[in-house]
Write a structure and sequence with these properties.
With 357 residues, the protein is of the alpha+beta class. Helix content is 41%, strand content 23%.
């Protein structure tokens, strides 16, 4: 592979800077934004092109101190002769801290792409929602209608059983509606300080006594990990969805789920004007099932993406939403034979002490 071609293919401004923030390397788009040739860029200070007091340098100072990569959203940059524009910025130390690699992703381009994707996704989701809800709700409704029709007959003896069917199927409909409602925009949370091990243990105990009674759980907990600030019940729901999926995927004999918690210091996330959040906790759930179908890996966290018989495709999107609202994210690591989900969460008081403006 020609790495020069790879570097030039980056579709937004990219720089490599030395410790004094002088430019060591720049791609073609950087030259366009700086309005000068590569030969004239090299060795020049980045401040010359984006201003002495740009917020970019505060980000660079932070990665020099803590050595972790930083993604910063909505950073205004005042390019020389181009005026102020807003970018998403990615910065990381390279060459053992001797240099910094930075990318600037234009928000205007990003916004247009996201809007187009949202429009397509919205139409797809609305269509899928109609199909799924129609299927999911019609089944219990058919049972309710059938039981009600039988109750109309005065000759029916097992009326208690029929009323039980009606109650159970009505509860199924209520649960479906509740799951869809949790994916709605309105968010209500009860945040408090908690230990993530308490959440996991509650879910594991419940699983062991029910849907996961056939599974052997392996725990590899790090007792030194800090607490998080979150909604205990919603986090319980998120881990319930993940563990239940694994329990249903593994074999009835020899099914295993490994739950690992560990300290993580590789990434800090934040929006411009907000404190960075260091994702200090990583929870890894790995099972020895068949893994996730390659057909849906790319859409695994999209609503209604499922290959499971009778599945609604709402469980994992709900997990992603809950974890996101707690300042973290969840990912599928498809390098394993089974399914492996990794959840990253910020610890209590894990924000940087300063805001970047």
């Amino acid at each position: 592979m020609d790495y020069k071609d790879l570097w030039e293919s980056v579709p937004y401004p990219a720089f490599v800077l030395d410790r004094k923030y002088d430019i060591k390397l720049a791609n073609s788009l950087s030259q366009q934004y700086c309005e000068t040739s590569l030969d004239r860029l090299l060795g020049q200070g980045l401040r010359k092109f984006i201003g002495q007091n740009s917020a970019v340098f505060e980000v660079l100072e932070k990665i020099a101190i803590n050595s972790s990569a930083i993604v910063k959203f909505d950073v205004p940059i005042n390019w020389k002769n181009k005026g102020s524009q807003v970018f998403d910025m990615y910065a990381v130390n390279v060459e053992t801290g001797l240099s910094s690699l930075i990318f600037f992703h234009p928000k205007q381009l990003k916004g247009k792409m996201e809007q187009a994707m949202q429009n397509q996704s919205s139409m797809k989701s609305v269509s899928a929602m109609g199909s799924v809800l129609s299927h999911e709700i019609k089944n219990p409704l058919a049972s309710i209608i059938g039981a009600a029709q039988l109750l109309e007959s005065s000759n029916v003896k097992n009326k208690k059983n029929l009323t039980q069917i009606i109650l159970e199927e009505a509860k199924r409909i209520e649960n479906i509606v509740n799951r869809v409602q949790l994916l709605a925009e309105v968010n209500r949370y009860d945040f408090s300080k908690l230990n993530i091990h308490d959440v996991i243990e509650k879910v594991k105990r419940s699983a062991s006594q029910g849907y996961g009674s056939h599974v052997f759980f392996e725990e590899n907990y790090d007792p030194s990990i800090p607490d998080v600030v979150g909604d205990f019940e919603l986090l319980t729901q998120a881990f319930h969805n993940l563990i239940k999926n694994s329990c249903e995927a593994v074999s009835k004999k020899g099914g295993r789920i490994n739950i690992k918690t560990s300290f993580y210091s590789g990434l800090a996330l934040g929006s411009f004007g907000e404190k960075n959040k260091k994702l200090k906790l990583m929870i890894t759930l790995t099972d020895n099932g068949p893994g996730v179908s390659k057909n849906i890996i790319a859409d695994i966290f999209d609503p209604f993406s499922t290959t499971k018989m009778g599945g609604s495709g709402l469980g994992l999107p709900l997990v992603a939403k809950i974890i996101s609202e707690h300042g973290g994210f969840v990912e599928l690591d498809d390098m394993y034979e089974g399914a492996c989900f990794k959840i990253y969460l910020p610890a209590e008081n894990s924000s940087e002490s300063e805001r970047i403006y």
